Amino acid sequence: MEITNTLYEPALIVTVQMDEASQNYFNALRTQYFPPERNFLNAHLTLFHKLPDTPETAAQVASVAATPFTIQVRGLINLGAGVAFRIESEILKRLRSDLARLFKDDLSAQDRQGFRGHITVSNKTRAELARKLLAELSLDFKPFEVNALGLDLWRYLGGSWEHIDFIAFR
Fold first, then answer.
1. Does 29 fall in a domain?
2. What digits encode the pLDDT tens for the residues 48-76?
3. Domain count across the chain
4. 6 in any annotated domain
5. Please, is 12 exposed, middle or buried when counting C-beta atoms within 10 Å of its C-beta (0-12, 13-18, 19+)?
6. Which pick of 21, 25, 39, 153 has the fewest CB atoms within 10 Å?
7. Would residue 92 count as lying in a domain?
């Protein structure tokens, strides 16, 4: 079921586009563990949750050039009511910091908090289920890498997202 709220403030979301195999891996986990009635997005690594929904935003995001790079998946995080994979990358931190400077006057409170990279595979569930899932996924976890291919821009639609643009790293 797609959830859409007509009383939302227009905004753009910026996520990292990862290689297909990694995207499929995280999507499969999200499909398996995210409550189905609330799972209407693919797995994603969000850099910004709420940027201005203007043509200038896409141009500013595109101005921060990067080449493809790898992201390290280092562990799992207990979100209280969910579980996420912890992401580390100095290149990604610099890229996010550069973009944050460009949008410093427009950042939401959430985006001003700083960046703690993660990919959520379960959320909005009971804390006890999240703890069990964390233990289960931790049993066989070994750090691995994901290829970052570019940035995706999404329009927030009050629950669901509409893909607006892909900015490839070159």
1. yes
2. 999 999 999 999 999 987 899 999 999 99
3. 1
4. no
5. buried
6. 21
7. yes
> What is the pLDDT at residue 7?
64
| Contacts of residue 4, Cβ cutoff 8 Å, sequence gap at least 6 | 157, 158, 159, 160
Does 83 fall in a domain?
A: yes
Match 């996924």 to its residue by tokens: 137
Q: CA 69, CA 168: separation in Å to the nearest integer?
A: 12
Q: For the domain that residue 46 is a member of, what is the CATH number?
A: 3.90.1140.10
CA separation for the pair 49, 118 (Å, rounded)? 13
Question: 107: number of CA atoms within 13 Å, CB side?
Answer: 18
Which residue range forms the structural domain that includes residue 129? 12-168
Query: Distance between CA 52 and CA 58 in Å, rounded?
Result: 10
Helices (H), the chain: 20-33, 55-63, 90-102, 109-112, 127-139
Residues 6 or more apart from 106 whose CB is under 8 A from it? Answer: 51, 52
CA dihedral 54, 165, 31, 74 (to 10 degrees): -90
